[in-house]
């Protein structure tokens, strides 16, 4: 089955500073927030995008939604190139690609009722439907009683607001949902409820989901595959369970070790990364992770690593991986 979404060699740039200032300083006027990223997602599959703040996750989401233009590379949705789509075409595409924003209460208009919020996408896209019946159907689908339609966002708990966000995202029967930090700010028990809901929606509706998160528990709970981002690049990609069991990239190892684990032995093995992620405005020479890598050798500062395939759908970029010989 060919992927529903195929991204190839995507590069997204932002202005580094004012153009005149950049020219005066002899600096590059733009920098790459996303640098040569490729991935695909099939219908019914969930891909997790993980990385520290500033690694470029939201920029990928914004580019897929047509809110930011790609500098180069290709984005194909259902076989169609969409990276150069017009604003009108993107407006149509939003029926098929839905976004679940990070802050559900903040992203829901405070003056609209839940009923109006959930059915607003139908109105925007001129879809004829019995809105009251659609609202009931969507609320029931996400486990909320129909009488929630009369409530306002401030009357919802965090978990209920997240459910309304899911219902709204599903209103137009999308084929791809981009979920930005779907559990941020929720208690552990509510997080599990929301994740179960997403997993259930995916199985029931066969949609593809791209989950963007810092939270590795979220990734482990609902994704089939994961991509670890550092400075706008993927440093490791592969099946989620495989990476959790045997990561190859030292950055992945450090992220996994920092994940809260009930097992005290695992907690002792926590790796603390030195310093902060460098700025993509001034990329380090060689391997871009070398300044923070506990295994770095002189060669790492000199030469950027290429992509190494390590078994089915598993790949990484590191000169001295921690996973041993390829299991391909
Ligand atoms: N509008 C913008 N103009 C200039 N630089 C930007 C803009 N938006 C993001 N950046 C920069 O691009 C890089 C990637 O940012 P991005 O928000 O995509 O990262 P992220 O991984 O989603 O972070 P977070 O988890 O905090 O949302 C960062 O260096 C950020 O400072």
What labels would you give this structure?
Rossmann fold; eight-stranded mixed β-sheet; single chain; binds adenosine-5'-triphosphate
3D architecture notes:
This protein is an alpha/beta fold and 328 residues long. The protein has a domain at 5-96 and 174-251: P-loop containing nucleotide triphosphate hydrolases (Rossmann fold), CATH 3.40.50. The protein has 13 helices and twelve strands. The chain has an eight-stranded mixed sheet, with helices on both faces. A four-stranded antiparallel sheet has the order 2-1-4-5, covered by helices on one side. A hairpin with a 2-residue loop joins strand 9 and strand 10. The protein starts with a strand and ends in a 12-residue tail after the last strand. The model has no long low-confidence stretch (mean pLDDT 89). The structure holds adenosine-5'-triphosphate. Adenosine-5'-triphosphate binds next to helix 2. One of its GO terms (molecular function) is ATP hydrolysis activity.
Q: Per the principal axes of the C-alpha atoms, what is the gross shape?
A: globular
Number of helices: 13
CATH superfamily of one domain: P-loop containing nucleotide triphosphate hydrolases
Helix-strand makeup class = alpha/beta
The share of residues in helices is 25-40%
Q: Ligands bound here?
A: adenosine-5'-triphosphate
CATH class descriptor name of one domain: Alpha Beta
Q: For the CA atoms, what is the radius of gyration?
A: 21 Å
First-to-last CA distance: 21 Å
**Can you tell me the CATH topology of one domain?**
Rossmann fold
Q: For the report, how would you describe the main beta sheet?
A: 8 strands, mixed
What's the pLDDT, averaged over the residues? 89
Following the backbone from N to C, one meets helices and strands in this order, namely: EHEEHEEHEHHHHEHEHEEHHHHEE
**Poorly predicted runs:** none
Strand order of the largest sheet: 6-7-8-3-9-10-12-11
CATH architecture of one domain: 3-Layer(aba) Sandwich
Q: Give the amount of beta strand, in percent.
A: 15-25%
Instruction: Tell how many strands the DSSP assignment holds.
Output: 12
Keywords: ATP-binding, Nucleotide-binding, Transport
Subcellular location: Cell inner membrane
GO molecular function: ATP binding; ATP hydrolysis activity
Protein name: ABC transporter ATP-binding protein
């Amino acid at each position: 089955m060919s992927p529903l979404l195929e991204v190839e060699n995507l590069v997204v740039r932002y202005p580094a500073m004012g153009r005149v200032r950049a020219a005066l300083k002899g600096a590059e006027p733009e920098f790459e927030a996303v640098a040569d990223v490729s991935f695909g997602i099939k219908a019914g599959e969930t891909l997790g995008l993980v990385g520290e703040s500033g690694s470029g996750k939201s920029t990928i989401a914004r580019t897929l939604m047509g809110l930011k233009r790609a500098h180069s590379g290709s984005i194909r949705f259902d076989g169609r190139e969409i990276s150069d789509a017009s604003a009108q075409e993107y407006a149509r595409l939003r029926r098929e690609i839905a976004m679940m924003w990070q802050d559900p209460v903040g992203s829901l208009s405070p003056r609209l009722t839940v009923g109006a919020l959930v059915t607003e996408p139908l109105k925007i896209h001129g879809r004829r439907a019995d809105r009251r019946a659609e609202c009931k159907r969507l609320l029931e689908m996400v486990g909320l009683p129909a009488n929630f339609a009369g409530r306002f966002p401030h009357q919802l708990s965090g978990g209920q607001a997240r459910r309304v966000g899911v219902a709204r995202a599903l209103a137009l029967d999308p084929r791809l949902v981009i979920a930005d930090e779907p559990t941020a700010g929720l208690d552990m028990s509510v997080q599990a409820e929301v994740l179960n809901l997403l997993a259930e929606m995916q199985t029931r509706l066969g949609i593809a989901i791209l989950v963007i998160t810092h939270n590795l528990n979220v990734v482990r709970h609902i994704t089939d595959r994961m991509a670890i981002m550092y400075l706008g690049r993927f440093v490791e990609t592969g099946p989620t369970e495989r990476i959790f069991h045997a990561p190859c990239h030292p950055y992945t190892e450090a992220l996994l070790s920092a994940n809260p684990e009930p097992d005290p032995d695992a907690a002792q093995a926590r790796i603390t990364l030195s310093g902060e992620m460098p700025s993509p405005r001034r990329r380090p020479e060689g391997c871009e992770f070398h300044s923070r890598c506990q295994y770095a050798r002189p060669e790492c500062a000199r030469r950027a690593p290429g992509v190494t395939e390590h078994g089915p759908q598993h790949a990484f970029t590191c000169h001295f991986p921690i996973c041993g010989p390829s299991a391909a």
